Amino acid sequence: MPILEVHLVEGEHAAAQIAELLARMSARYAEVLASPLERVRAYATLHPPEHWATGGVAGVEAPYFTAIVLEGRPAEQRRRLLGAFTDIIVDTLGVDRRVVRGRIIPVSPADWAIGGVPASSVRAAEIAARAAPS
Q1: In angstroms, how far is CA 44 from the centroid of its own chain?
Q2: Distance separating alpha carbons of residues 88 and 32, to the nearest angstrom
Q3: pLDDT, greater one: 54 or 1
Q4: For the chain, first and last CA: distance in Å?
Q5: Per-residue pLDDT tens digits for 99-116
Q6: How confident is the model over 16-67, as pLDDT tens digits?
Q7: Which of 1, 21, 24, 65 could be joined to 102 by an S-S link, Cβ 3.0–4.6 Å?
Q8: How far apart (Å, rounded) are the C-alpha atoms in residues 114 and 107?
Q9: 81-83-86 Cα angle (round to 5)
């Protein structure tokens, strides 16, 4: 379920930097949520400089990220994600911490699909499978 999107200005960072950013953020997401890494989806959306403004000035980059989590995640986990993602963006891209923005978007398990099935049903099946005697 973990989904992560980072918005950046096109042409500001090398492709290798963006790939490293996504890999590092994915690993940290999996670690904080205690989720298998293969469940994490991360992508960068690159905006042409003329389609981005910071403080009303076109092309001035200020990275922004969103992370989607299922409702019920503890506030401490969400806080850790916000801090960790900001740290990784600053370290990987060399941007000023003060310009980075981000948010966590909680989604009801009934409103999120995994393979076309509501996550609430998938989670219930996983819990039942773990509880069944081997």
Answers
A1: 10
A2: 14
A3: 54
A4: 27
A5: 999 999 999 888 887 777
A6: 999 999 999 999 999 999 989 999 999 999 999 999 999 999 988 899 999 9
A7: 65
A8: 13
A9: 105
Averaged pLDDT for residues 125-131:
60
Tokens of residue 11, six digits: 């042409």
Residue in 35, 25, 28, 115 with CA at minimum distance from that of residue 70: 35
CA distance 61 to 47: 10
Which residues share a beta bridge with 26? none
Residue type, 83: G
Q: Are 1 and 112 in contact (CB under 8 A)?
A: yes
Instruction: Please say if the pLDDT value at position 124 is more than 90.
Output: no
120 pLDDT exceeds 80?
A: no
Give the amino acid at 11.
G
Burial of 61 (0-12, 13-18, 19+ CB in 10 A): buried
Residue with tokens 């996550």: 119
Q: How many angstroms separate the CA atoms of 82 and 9, rounded?
A: 20
